[in-house]
């Protein structure tokens, strides 16, 4: 039981429709509000819904106003009732009315810094994943008693009560995430043949239409597709619930009664960053708030995969029930908790600085004398100071000074390379960068004549990122011929020269690497660019061409080879490669412009004009940051197949 300040004291949770949609992300907002209520020891939550002056979020374009209003009534408002602590819901007529309510809240509001003039929302899943990794149990949602009674009454009429729900996604938006209907219909019949009772929940968009496409003879429940409370109750009593990457799956994330498999689909399966950046979940893993019978599946929804994963979890469920360990397994699976430093590194990688600051403060509270904790706290304060007026560099300096203090308390030879790089970062930001001799001591780990390439590479990249070019040049002067006998060291050395724009020096090192057969990957591209920057385009073309024939160019080098071929009027190569990029989904303005220019030179004026128009559209979309796919994101394995075919031919 919560120890509350007083039973009537409330947390006012503000859901502002100017910055938030009436969608399933509202569940993350509710979980964060409930956690905040418990932390502040308040007796209840009162939700204030603030109307929008204009809809700024993407959903406003994705849905029309009629659909948005329907989702408000049938998705957002019912979601609020899943929290037992939610006692009141205020739907404001305008923003002035909302402000009057806020003026009487005794500052017990969520989000803490909210104002009607500067609205913001905390509703992204990475925040709930943070709480889960901190060890918080987020089992907050339940269906109403009445909804459970209705579903129980229906279930008692079934001859086979072992219900398996299949929630379909059949949306005209983000179609790449939709269910593989052919596979799911076949799988539904397999379930039926094996003694289960499959129940299909169609997408809400088509919930009142008859099931077709192989689902004939399978039970559907349109009521659960429309009524969120009925949906939650059905999921709670079902033996297992099956989803793709669709919104209703979130109902199971904060309700331990709901056993489920969610088959990741669309870009959440194909693009590592899509899941890690917005959801905070390491690609291929299970979120820390889920129990052993709640799993993400990182495989496409083919029939054999569906049956394989279903068989695996059903064996685990049945074994736990038989052994009497089932109820103990309903708490979050401790094996899914992620190391907090690794989690912090991923948050920093994607630039979620508010989240990083919260995490760093928690880490410091639990382990005050740790360098890395203070580094991340300082980094968050620095970035927030740059990006807004909500923080200041004084806090950054405090944290970086503490980080340096705890670093100096230990022998630097005990630290990993990335920790030493972070130490140099702190020193640079405080204006106390070590002299060249001390930097050399780091890369040699205090042992004369023996170089640690991992530390050397990390320090070099850190100094480049900080624009500490003089310090880097001093570090490079400490590298001797014996050091360069190591393939890893000579590669790092050449790339650092390139980063310093010392292209002539870099070119001579790359040439040595090529002679020794250790030139590969991105280094080929850097060598080629160095040749171009030193006014040797023919040499650069011959370099790319030689590795092109061997099938050893990566995506970036392949694209550059095509561009250089166009510039040198070798249109056969340029056209062949650029068309391959186009056929594999490339649609950047650079690619389309290049293809337009080539076809114009070849006299294909109509096609050239069409491509020029497409390039203009692509350029406009890129400027609005609406393009999520660029040519260099084409899968490397596809490029390797293409190059292999060229080499064979």
Characteristics:
alpha/beta, six-stranded parallel sheet, 29 helices, Rossmann fold, 649 residues
General description of the model:
- This protein has helices at 26-40, 59-62, 65-80, 95-102, 125-133, 145-155, 181-193, 222-226, 228-237, 267-270, 272-279, 303-323, 340-349, 353-366, 371-387, 393-408, 417-429, 436-443, 453-465, 469-477, 487-499, 503-515, 522-533, 537-550, 555-567, 571-583, 589-601, 605-623, 636-648, and strands spanning 10-16, 44-50, 86-91, 109-110, 163-167, 197-201, 219-220, 240-243, 260-263, 294-297.
- By secondary structure, it is α/β, with parallel strands linked by helices.
- Among the domains are: 10-123; 145-336, Glycogen Phosphorylase B (Rossmann fold).
């Amino acid at each position: 039981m919560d120890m509350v300040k007083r039973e009537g004291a409330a947390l006012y949770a503000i859901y502002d429709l100017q910055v938030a949609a009436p969608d399933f992300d509202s569940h993350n907002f509710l979980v964060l509000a409930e956690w905040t209520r418990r932390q502040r020891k308040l007796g209840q939550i009162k939700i204030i819904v603030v109307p929008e002056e204009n809809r700024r979020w993407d959903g406003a374009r994705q849905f029309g106003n009629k659909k948005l209003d329907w989702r408000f009534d049938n998705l957002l408002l019912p979601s609020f009732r899943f929290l037992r602590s939610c006692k009141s819901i205020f739907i404001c007529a305008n923003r002035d009315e909302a402000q009057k309510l806020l003026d009487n809240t005794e500052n017990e509001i969520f989000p803490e810094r909210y104002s009607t003039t500067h609205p913001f929302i905390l509703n992204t899943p990475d925040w709930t994943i943070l709480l889960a990794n901190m060890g918080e149990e987020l089992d907050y949602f339940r269906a109403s008693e009445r909804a459970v009674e209705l579903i129980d009454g229906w279930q008692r009429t079934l001859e086979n009560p072992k219900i398996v729900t299949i929630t379909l996604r059949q949306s005209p938006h983000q179609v790449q995430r939709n269910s593989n209907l052919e596979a799911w219909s076949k799988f539904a019949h397999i379930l039926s043949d094996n003694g289960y009772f499959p129940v299909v929940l169609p997408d809400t968009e088509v919930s009142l239409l008859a099931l077709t496409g192989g689902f004939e003879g399978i039970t559907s429940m349109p009521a659960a597709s429309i009524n969120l409370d009925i949906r939650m109750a059905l999921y709670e009593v079902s033996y297992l619930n099956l989803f793709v990457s669709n919104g209703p799956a979130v109902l199971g994330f904060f309700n331990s009664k709901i056993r489920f498999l969610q088959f990741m689909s669309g870009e959440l399966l194909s693009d590592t960053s899509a899941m890690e950046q917005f959801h905070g979940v390491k690609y291929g893993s299970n979120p820390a708030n889920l129990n052993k019978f709640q799993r993400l599946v990182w495989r496409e929804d083919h029939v054999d995969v569906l049956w394989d994963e279903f068989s695996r979890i059903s064996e685990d469920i049945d074994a736990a029930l038989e052994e009497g360990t089932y109820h103990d397994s309903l708490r979050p699976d401790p094996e899914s908790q992620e190391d907090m430093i690794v989690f912090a590194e991923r948050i920093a990688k994607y630039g979620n600085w508010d989240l990083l600051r919260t995490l760093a403060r928690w880490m410091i509270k639990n382990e005050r004398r740790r360098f890395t904790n203070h580094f991340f706290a300082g980094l968050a304060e620095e970035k927030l100071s740059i990006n807004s007026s909500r923080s200041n560099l004084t806090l950054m300096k405090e944290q970086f000074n503490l980080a340096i203090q705890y670093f100096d308390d230990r022998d630097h030879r005990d630290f990993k390379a990335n920790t030493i790089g972070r130490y140099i970062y702190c020193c640079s930001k405080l204006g106390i960068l070590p002299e060249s001799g001390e930097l050399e001591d780091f890369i040699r780990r205090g042992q004369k004549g023996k170089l640690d390439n991992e530390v050397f590479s990390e320090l070099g990249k850190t100094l480049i990122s900080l624009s500490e070019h003089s310090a880097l040049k001093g570090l490079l002067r400490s590298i001797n011929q014996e050091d360069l006998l190591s393939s890893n060291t000579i590669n790092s050395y050449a790339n650092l020269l390139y980063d310093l724009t010392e292209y002539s020096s870099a070119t001579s090192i790359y040439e040595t690497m090529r002679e020794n057969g250790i030139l590969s990957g991105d280094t080929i591209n850097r060598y080629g660019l160095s040749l171009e920057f030193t006014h040797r385009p023919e040499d650069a073309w011959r370099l790319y061409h030689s590795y092109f024939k061997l099938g050893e160019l990566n995506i970036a080098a392949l694209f550059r080879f095509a561009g250089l071929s166009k510039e040198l009027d070798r249109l056969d190569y340029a056209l062949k490669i650029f068309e391959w990029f186009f056929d594999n989904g490339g649609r950047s303005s650079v690619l389309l412009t290049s293809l337009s220019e080539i076809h114009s030179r070849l006299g294909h004026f109509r096609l050239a004009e069409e491509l020029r128009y497409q390039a203009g559209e692509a350029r406009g979309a890129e400027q609005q940051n609406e393009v999520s796919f660029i040519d260099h994101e084409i899968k490397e394995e596809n490029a390797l197949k293409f190059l292999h075919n060229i080499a064979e031919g």
